[in-house]
């Protein structure tokens, strides 16, 4: 029992909760996932969700990151300002208190003062990717596609700046609620039309300084004119919005550095296509970055020592 | 009875229907309005709505413009390509057929081939504004704020190009459905905060070639940081989106020509503030442009002659 490591990591976002049980070397022994994001908690709220997702796992120290540390989360953990490295983030962690014989620590998010921007959870993924990835990534651009896509600039292991674009949220809103979605089968799943996607990318690329806002309505006009099939509208729109991310990144000089993608494979696939269109060298893709990042932050915060102590006392109980 | 002019004009859009009864000189004798836009028709559909809104008015020729001529409308009237003047638009009108002893004519919308764009109804308002406005407006930029704002370039009375930006629709979607609306009282009516609006305008102006897409999430970050009051979010967001319209217009060289605003007074007020911020000379505002435009198109299409004949036959009945 004295050999048993006891650390649990939680990647707790708006719409999902992922839990990891680690071995002594940081390897993930078990992983679980549930839709208990902070906006859709089970009865009993945060403690009940934690209890349920760790059921049967040893009582031990828990380290969490993501929206669980936001104002709407379990406990608001103040942002740490960029530039910030893993050590600075670890220093900003807060102990929420014991719960169900767990010691719970929540990681802070990052804040950029001007232009104003915030992230929660992605910082931990970036820390994980920095550990997992090659040395080349110590100075690179990290792209985390999603509801609110993040583009972070890392310099010698330190997150120096980042920008948020509401790509995924706008995509869903426009397809579901706007005129652009009318007549498209947004509820059915189509095979990815790379041709439509690339066409969207190029429309934004060709727009120069105008960008995506001036291109959106053309989606409707092209469909009315029979020049864009209704089935192709979602991928064309996806191309417009992801293309805008790359157009903005180019304005910030992102083309000069290697690109690292952290995200779901299907989404990363689109970003690979976009990166090629926008003249980037082929990006690195890092998986399971959150699990690695949570472990790293726990280590930096000295929680692994505590976990070992906890493990011994667990053996005594 | 032979002196009585009989023409009815309909400005029939997605969410509202406006009807005008004209005197022989084109003056509006009576005007009615109802929420029977083409997406919310009463039982009995288009004919029932027309019958009800013209109840008690003399049977006569009807000229209509707007989404009523779209694929989802009463009858699809093919677009006329720009460049197009009032005569070209009038030539594109289609007679839908008699209904409730009315002869119904629907005006075409305008289409731009590249970049692809379409309008329905605004062309008629521009024709009306060209008649109502001063000679200076014969070559000007016409701005029609709304759900889908239109910026049209008119050269010697001819509409040569136009662009659509989904300002109003995005504003409503973002406030109602996105993270930006969380914590804001979007359902209550606040006094217009010009300071918040101007702050939004300047954020886009200062973004240079980036534009609004990269600025949206900052609305949330500023609110979280306590640097933007929740009550100010709607007007700040309005400033961002309307500011983007002016940023795009400047890229197209719109600052070189006079600006004419056609729209609701409260909305035009915002565009006046934005025009000043973006260095435009004070724009002209034209009201009741649709009523005037419908009359002009009827005249160009020879429908006033027909209306007179109809009026005589009405007297015989």
TrEMBL record, chains A, B:
Domain of life: Bacteria
Protein's recorded name: 2-dehydro-3-deoxygalactonokinase
Lineage: Bacteria, Pseudomonadati, Pseudomonadota, Gammaproteobacteria, Lysobacterales
Record Pfam families: DGOK (PF05035)
Cited Gene3D superfamilies: 2-keto-3-deoxy-galactonokinase, C-terminal domain, 2-keto-3-deoxy-galactonokinase, substrate binding domain
Native organism: Dyella acidiphila
Annotated coiled-coil segments of the chain: none
Transmembrane segments: none
InterPro entries: ATPase_NBD, DGOK, DGOK_C, DGOK_N
